[in-house]
From TrEMBL:
NCBIfam families: PRK09293.3-3
Protein name per the record: Fructose-1,6-bisphosphatase class 1
Cofactor(s) needed by this chain: Mg(2+)
GO biological process: fructose 1,6-bisphosphate metabolic process; fructose 6-phosphate metabolic process; fructose metabolic process; gluconeogenesis; sucrose biosynthetic process
Binding note for cofactor: Binds 2 magnesium ions per subunit.
Originating species: Halogranum gelatinilyticum
Entry similarity comment: Belongs to the FBPase class 1 family.
EC number in record: 3.1.3.11
């Protein structure tokens, strides 16, 4: 990471870790659907908007953060006194406050995804200076990625305790998870899925929260895709809040990301809520996918 951003990034990651237990404690009473939809047209749960407000409040207070955007609000919020001027050292935060929040109803895994850019939003993956996610599983863990690599922490008490440094994808992959309805997959992606399924070293792991599935790929090696669909040519996941930070984390861990033809981090940002096909995992599996979709 450029040293000018080291302090700002640490403050952002520490703040996200500090909020993890607070968010966890707030979940039991906020599993109900609200009457509101988010900018992607999805029904919000009380927990989605609660977490969004909390992150805006606490991250917006940090000196280095000049812009805050989330999957749950239409426009980015300017959080400093300097208007819309973007100065050296300024950072923008783009958040998926709760990824996989529909899993709350069935009490399954979900998480928070954080992207930190040194450019105004919407920004390119090339402008990322760091990314992280919190995983609300049986225990609360956090993965961070910056130019020093990928680190896994325990954050049960709101502080970051290192579990694993220099996290890299295992060389022998063993899990795959593909989103979207199977009949809605384009034929070339369905062919790729057949190829992966025919490999007897690979087993299906799909949980309906990208963060849970991504953490399995980081732990066991493998591939996660939410592909382009016949009914949705850009898939479901959003570039600023989901595709870019997850692509950055997996690439920092020695893997590859792809929108089907090249790195997700090279996709041109055109809209805060734009969607992108997401394919991430071990290099060989993502290269085979790009060949299949070519
Ligand atoms: P979010 O809860 O932030 O809207 O994200 C849900 C995403 C992602 O986490 C997951 O991989 C995918 O949607 C699940 O979609 P399906 O329900 O279509 O499998
Ligand atoms: Mn999400
Ligand atoms: Mn979400």
């Amino acid at each position: 990471m450029a040293t000018e951003h080291a302090e700002g990034l640490t403050e952002i990651f520490d703040t996200v870790a500090a909020l993890a237990p607070e968010i966890r404690e707030a979940l039991p009473g906020r599993r109900v659907k609200s009457d509101e939809t988010n900018p992607s047209g999805e029904t919000q749960l009380a927990a989605d908007s609660y977490a969004d407000e909390l992150f805006l409040d606490r991250l917006g207070d940090l000196d280095g953060v000049v812009e805050y955007a989330s999957e749950e609000r239409t426009k980015a919020v300017h959080t400093d006194d300097d208007g819309q001027n973007y100065d050296a050292g300024d950072l923008s935060v783009a958040i998926d406050p709760l990824d996989g929040s529909s899993n709350l109803q069935s009490n399954n895994t979900m998480g928070t995804i954080v992207a930190v850019y040194d450019a105004p939003l919407p920004a390119s993956g090339a402008d990322l200076v760091g990314a992280a996610y919190v995983l609300f599983g049986p225990i609360t863990t956090m993965i961070t990625a910056d130019d020093e690599g990928v680190t896994e922490y325990l954050v049960d008490d709101g502080t970051r305790q290192v579990i694993r440094e220099d996290v890299t994808l295992p060389e022998e992959p063993s899990v795959y998870g593909f989103g979207g309805r199977v009949p809605d997959w384009p034929a070339d992606f369905a062919d790729y899925a057949d190829e992966v399924e025919a490999d007897d070293t690979m087993k299906l792991r799909y949980g309906g929260a990208m963060i849970g599935d991504i953490n399995q790929v980081l732990t066991y090696g493998g591939v996660f895709s939410y592909p382009a669909l016949q009914s949705a040519p850009n898939g479901k996941l959003r570039l600023q809040f989901e595709g870019n930070p997850i692509g950055f984390i997996i690439e920092s861990a020695g893997g590859r990301s792809s929108d089907g033809s090249g790195s997700i981090l090279d996709v041109e940002p055109t809209d805060l809520h734009q969607r992108v096909p997401v394919h991430v995992g071990n290099e060989g599996l993502v290269e085979r996918l790009e060949a299949a979709l070519d």
